[in-house]
Design a protein that fits this description.
The structure is a single chain. The protein has 2 domains: about 15-40, no CATH class; about 45-94, no CATH class. Strands 1-3-2 form a 3-stranded antiparallel β-sheet. Helix content is about 45%, strand content about 10%. By secondary structure, the protein is of the alpha+beta class. A hairpin with a 6-residue loop joins strand 2 (about 65-70) and strand 3. The protein has helices spanning about 15-35, 50-55, 60-65, 85-94, and strands at about 45-50, 65-70, 75-80.
């Protein structure tokens, strides 16, 4: 049997405490640099309605999106494959 950390899906990664701490340190340093240059953070949803995400996404990427059904509305949801269309939408509508 494979060790538990090797049972993660392709592309998923587990960060143990020391590695997680180093990762957060690098992230904090980068955020500090961005702030000094006048950039501000935008946090977009990890998932949205699939048709909304598909509008700004390449057809090949659309076929590989992880989707699920919203029990309340019956609409398809998808995990965002790329943050670019969401940021573009924010810029275009604000």
């Amino acid at each position: 049997m494979r060790p538990r950390h090797q049972q993660l899906p392709k592309g998923a990664r587990l960060y143990l405490p020391d590695e997680a701490e180093r990762k957060r340190h690098v992230e904090a340093a980068l955020l500090g640099v961005f702030r000094r240059w006048g950039y501000r953070e935008i946090v977009t949803p990890t998932f949205e309605y699939a048709d909304v995400l598909a509008a700004g996404t390449d057809v090949d990427v659309q076929g590989n999106m992880f989707t699920l059904v919203d029990r309340e509305s019956g609409r398809m949801l998808a995990l965002r494959p790329d943050i670019t269309p969401q940021i573009a939408r924010v810029v275009a509508t604000r």
